[in-house]
Amino acid sequence: MGHLATKKSYTRLRERLDRMPVGAPGRTTIYEILKMLFTPEEAELASKLPMRPTSIGRLAARLGQHPDKLKKRLDAMADKGLVLDINIGGKMRYALPPTIVGLFEFSMMRVREDIDQKHLAELLHRYILEERDFVESFNRDAETSLFRTLVHEETLPDYAEVLDWERATYLVERAGNWAVSLCHCRHVAHHMGNDCQKFELDTCLSLGLAADYLTRRNLGRKIEKEQALELLARSRDAGLVHIADNVQKRPAFICNCCGCCCEILQAFKRFRWMGNTFTSNFQASPTREKCTGCRKCQKACPVDAITMVDDPHEVDGKKIRFTARVDEDVCIGCGVCALRCEYGSMVMKPRPQRRIAPESTFARVMTMALEQGKFHHLLEEALGGWSGQLAGALVGAIMR
Ligand code: SF4
Ligand code: SF4
Ligand code: SF4
């Protein structure tokens, strides 16, 4: 492939990825990442793949290729985490994964010898946590997040109403398939010389179709339901946050995250990425009369939502100078602080306004696309061949 043609393949791939609700903006680092992950030929093929899982027959017809040859190429790319192949009702369907959650995570979910993962880790860290292109490409007024925090169920008061899709254990119980992979973020942190002090690397929990994909493609290890539940319990005891796919039904993952390594939590702390749209429906609230000012909650909070304020008071006849205060706009409702508080002061309370997670991945993608101003790209793809301009005009007319 000539130099110019090669360059165009990566440009087309970046533009293709950027049409998804979570895109691939930027002019430099994103290209360095794509060039590490894809050969020019793979980039060219990937740039023509749909976002929606599609059968090999339809794909072959659309791309003008022989189905067997195309399948072989796609399978080889799926082995590298560059293509999603999903078993829907016994039939395999192929799609291009988004950058997040997708290409970036898959690239670090196992140890690989075929690429320089240390360099890749540096690029991913720079792209997500140092440069602004990626985080600032998100509409700050959007209400729908990619993720949502699952409150630690043990911290909830008896009166609290918690729905099934808000409970990590329920989501795990119902999944059908379970897999564990290397935690992308801790793996990146390891290559950056910051090994996680809180938890092991082998912690990324995938569920359902995602678990099936990751185990088939050697990007994760199949585990049983009991092991998945045990992983949840151990990560809770280690003071980690459960962050799940923001859907009510069939979530793809529940991450067990720490404030030190997790890119979601770090991007939130640094840039308020995604605002506080990924909070659970609960928030932490200290009880002044019980707060001994011990600071354990403050040290445990993964997003620095707790400060100690000068507020002299008495607890059991003892004079106390400081009391904990929670910034409700920063609190993501994880419950980690309440688990750490030994004095019954920090409790979880329902938020005044409940957030309802999208019912399915389809609903989340549609809502996010609308909020991120990318719905016309989905429409264009669904209508197969309409120009982006025409689809954009149609969306504009509908929205008026
Ligand atoms: S989001 Fe959390 S568990 Fe998932 S890869 Fe990052 S730190 Fe690991
Ligand atoms: S852990 Fe409990 S007692 Fe200690 S500062 Fe926090 S709220 Fe107060
Ligand atoms: S204050 Fe911090 S630790 Fe406590 S629930 Fe909120 S985000 Fe979690």
Keywords:
400 residues, alpha+beta, Arc Repressor Mutant, subunit A, Alpha-Beta Plaits, 4 domains, six-stranded antiparallel beta sheet, three-stranded antiparallel beta sheet, 18 helices, elongated, binds iron/sulfur cluster
Short overview:
This protein is of the alpha+beta class. The protein folds into four domains: 3-136, Arc Repressor Mutant, subunit A (Orthogonal Bundle); 147-271, no CATH class; 282-350, 2-Layer Sandwich (Alpha-Beta Plaits); 361-399, no CATH class.
Your description of this structure?
By secondary structure, this protein is an alpha+beta fold. It folds into four domains: 3-136, Orthogonal Bundle (Arc Repressor Mutant, subunit A), CATH 1.10.10; 147-271, no CATH class; 282-350, Alpha-Beta Plaits; 361-399, no CATH class. 42% of the residues lie in helices and 16% in strands. The chain is built from 18 helices and 13 strands. The strands form four sheets. It has a six-stranded antiparallel sheet. Strands 1-3-2 form a three-stranded antiparallel sheet. A two-stranded antiparallel sheet has the order 10-13. α2 packs antiparallel against α7 and α16 crosses α17. The longest helix is centred in the N-terminal third of the chain and has 16 residues, at 3-18. The termini are far apart.
